[in-house]
Amino acid sequence: MRNPWAQTGNYRTSYVQDTTIFATYREIVSVGVLLVALVLLPQFLERSQVLTLNFILIYAIAVLGLNITTGYAGLISVGQAAFMGVGAYTVALTAPYLPFYLTIPLGAAVAAVFGAVVGIPSLRVKHLYLALATLAFQEIFVWSVGRMPALAQGASIPVEMRNFLGYEIGFRNHNHFWYYVILFVLVLMVIAWRNLLRGKYGRALVAVRDNDRAADAMGMDPGRTKLMAFALGALYAGVAGGLLAYFQRSVVIEEFTLAKSVGFLAMAIVGGLGTVVGSLLGPAFIEYLRLSMERLSEWIKGNQAIQQLIPPGVDVASALLPLSFGLVIVLFLMFEPRGLYNWWRLVRSYFRTWPFKY
Amino acid sequence: MKRSVLLVGLTLLGLAQAQQTVSLVHSGAITGPTSDVGGPYAAAIEDYCKYANEQKLIPGYTLNCIVRDDQYQNPNAQRILEEALDRNKPAVYLGYATGAMLALKSLVQEVKLVTIPASAHIGLIDPPDNTYMFLPTSSYSEQVVALLEYIARQKKGAKVALVVNPSPFGRAVLDDARKAATQLGLSIVDVQEVGGNNLDNTALLRNLDSKGTEFIIHQNVAGPVANILKDAKKLGLDKKIKQLGAVYTGGNDLIRLAGDAAEGYLWASSYYTLDEDTPGMKLHRELAAKYNRGTLGQSHNYTAGLLAAAIAVETMKRALQRFGKIDNTTFYNALVGMNGPNSFNPGFVVKTANSPEIDFTKSEQTGGEGLRVLEVKGGKFVPITQPFTSTLFRKVHFGK
Fold first, then answer.
1. What is the residue extent of each domain of chain B?
2. Which member of A30, A236, A342, B62 has the greatest number of CB atoms within 10 A?
């Protein structure tokens, strides 16, 4: 028998082996090490850095959902922020009456229902037309919230949680408390994601994506599979929205606009469509890019010498962020369509086979 | 022995003369959406800080101004504020956008940090979590109600349309405007939302015209309003429908964008205009020239930034005089004592016969309550009313 610690590849000889979550012991250990590192990480960061980390983890949950809808099922969705908004507003309305461990699942369930409804056009239309249908939902959502007095017409609805099982939550520990909650939820969502995709439902998603008529001929139900993909993607977004509501202490419509949905797509593409690692790397990369561009634009704005080189009326600093976003997406699509995940895969392969060449 | 005494003496002298530092943090849209407002606003805060340090306006203290770009993103505003709270312990936060300020209300309430936002959304000073929120001038709602009062004085039973930005900033005024219109006997014939992508407004204007609209009140930024004014002129509706707007719709930016289509536009503003001869506007011209601000220094948003910074610096000075130290607690106590004989009159905004330029109490969280209606005549805004305060606003909003 092979030494399980010295495996250099996946030698799967049965269906059971093929559906395991971890292929090697080394994978189990590396995930364990990663989790320990993530648990310890806030101890080495400033409170405001933990805040950025929380946003990354919340966005990672939303991108995981998008990776079910778009990455696995191949159904383009530009409404992920709206689904997130459904979860957030459900939490905002129910938070005064229910604890957070009930409001967040409730928000996720409501978002999933919305997802299934929005997914109905996917039974008839594909590709760009389907993207337009989800775009319509995104716009309708923002428009509707702006006209609903019950949702403060898009202005702030406070979501307060000052105490959890006797543990006081305030300014000093708010970010850390929510970091651990979000991390816990993220781990659960990743496990659920992996479990879903290794089973028959996950394989149905791939089959329907690759050829829905062939999938139909093999006994799968493409319609139900597509609706499930939308519902599950929206469910993940709903969980992310609920967490965001508590973490930001309020719900404001500006967090759930089309720009955010496009941002999630960018995160999924840059990270690597249809991968867990990509769902984590994409948000981290985009947030890092945002912070870097913020510093660069502040530097440009504050540098008189550079300002004098720029023609009057041209705001280079304002253009930096959208320009860099667009450029990064185009470059990834052209040169690395498999995203950052592929770099991660290459690095991992290098070390797995070291000192031999891959 | 002599040397030790000399050393101790010099050390004590040095300590006595050492400058302490007090921090002020501002985050706003220096780049990104609404940076036409945020750019001059932030520049003014920077310039006033330099001026305050040069003039030693706070004796014994150096003002550390942290001016950051949040790119109109709520998460960025939250991060910048929390960074400042951790690293600099600011005495005051000069905020910016409506959405971010509404979202941060509970945080500033918890950390007891006085927040003076650029946004004049009335929800910021409404309960809950409103103790530490203070508006430098009248709210958007009060400005729009004042414009309705002006219309009612011009024509009884006039038909009015509201055109607002599709955001919490734009919608802030709707409830109070509807209530005020009812009380004034005006009819609101339509409410439309118009954002920054309104390249053609023919349908909007024809629709409003078909409803017999006589006045359009805008709650928006200058860009969309300029496009509507240009289209109204093109359609020949500029003489038929009078257009008016709240503070961020007007100023030199509107004249620059709309050109001669801006002629006749009415603007509710608390600020003096750049060519008026008040101490504040003299300082505005002086600082804009000194720091080479160019077009940024021509904007009334630069005046707004100067006012916010001036209130902050004056309050720090008073906190030091009254309590011997400057922190968020003494800042709050000094600010709510800025009334009656202790009101603040820097010459940036108008005062009325009944109210000073800037005054605050624990329950009155609006600084400058006076405003004027100005009209574009010959390519510049000219006041056409004396400074006044809305008589109806407090009744419709607070019920008193």
1. 19-137+276-368, 140-269+372-398
2. A236
CA distance A131 to A70: 10
The Cβ of residue B79 has, within 10 Å, a number of other Cβ atoms equal to 21
Domain A14-257 - what CATH class?
mainly alpha
Inter-residue long-range contacts of B8-12, CB under 8 Å, 24+ positions, other chains counted: none
Spatial CB neighbours of A34, under 8 Å, sequence gap ≥ 6? none
Lowest-pLDDT range, A96-100, A253-257, B2-6?
A: B2-6
Q: What's the gap between Cα B33 and its chain centre? A: 17
For the ranges A94-98, A201-205, A241-245, B202-206, which has the lowest average pLDDT?
Answer: A201-205
* A140 SS3 class: helix
> pLDDT value at position B15?
47
User: Domain B140-269+372-398, what fold?
Assistant: Rossmann fold (3.40.50)
Which residues of chain B are at the A interface, by a Cβ-Cβ cutoff of 8 Å? 30-32, 35, 68-69, 71, 74-76, 78-79, 82-83, 85-87, 98-99, 102-103, 105-107, 110-111, 121, 123, 128-129, 166-168, 171-172, 174, 193, 292, 294-295
A355 interfaces chain B, CB cutoff of 8 Å: no
Which member of A46, A55, A315 has the closest CB to residue B35? A315
Q: What tens digit of pLDDT does each residue of A215-227 get?
A: 999 999 999 999 9
Q: Other C-beta atoms within 10 Å of A148: how many? A: 12
Q: What angle do CA B354, B356, B358 make, to 5 degrees?
A: 140
A172 — contact with chain B (CB < 8 Å)? Answer: no
Name the strand (E) or helix (H) holding A22.
none
Which residues in chain A touch residue B71, judged by CB atoms under 8 angstroms apart?
A: 294, 297, 321
pLDDT value of position A223:
93
Smallest Cβ–Cβ distance between B31 and the set A171, A255, A301 belongs to A301
As a whole number of angstroms, the distance between CA A269 and CA A262 comes to 11
Q: What is the CA B3 to chain-centroid distance, rounded?
A: 57
Contact B22, B63 (CB under 8 A): yes
Cα dihedral sign, B118-B121-B127-B129: negative
| Set of chain B residues whose Cβ sits within 8 Å of the Cβ of A317 | 30-31, 69
- Whether A153 and B78 lie within 8 Å, measured CB to CB: no
- Predicted ipTM beyond 0.90: no
Q: Which CATH architecture has domain B19-137+276-368?
A: 3-Layer(aba) Sandwich (3.40)
Task: Tell me if A52 and B295 make a contact (CB, 8 A cut-off).
Answer: no
Distance separating alpha carbons of residues B349 and B357, to the nearest angstrom: 6
Which residue stretches of chain B have pLDDT < 70? 1-18
Calpha distance B114→B16 (Å, rounded):
29
- The structure tokens 């004014």 sit at B229
HEC readout, chain B:
CHHHHHHHHHHHHHHHHCCEEEEEEEEECCCCCCHHHHHHHHHHHHHHHHHHHHCCCCCCEEEEEEEEECCCCHHHHHHHHHHHHHHCCCCEEECCCHHHHHHHHHHHHHHCCEECCCCCCHHHCCCCCCCCECEEECCHHHHHHHHHHHHHHHCCCCEEEEEECCCHHHHCCHHHHHHHHHHHCCEEEEEEECCCCCCCCHHHHHHHHHCCCCEEEEECCHHHHHHHHHHHHHCCCCCCCEEEECHHHCCHHHHHHHHHHHCCCEEEECECCCCCCCHHHHHHHHHHHHCCCHHHHHCHHHHHHHHHHHHHHHHHHHHHHHHCCCCHHHHHHHHHCCCHHHCECCCCECCCCCCCCECCCCCCCEEECCEEEEEEECCEEEECCCCECCCCHHHHHHCC
The length of chain B in residues reads 400
The CA distance from A243 to the nearest CA of chain B, in Å, is 14
* β-pair type (B242-245, B366-368): unpaired
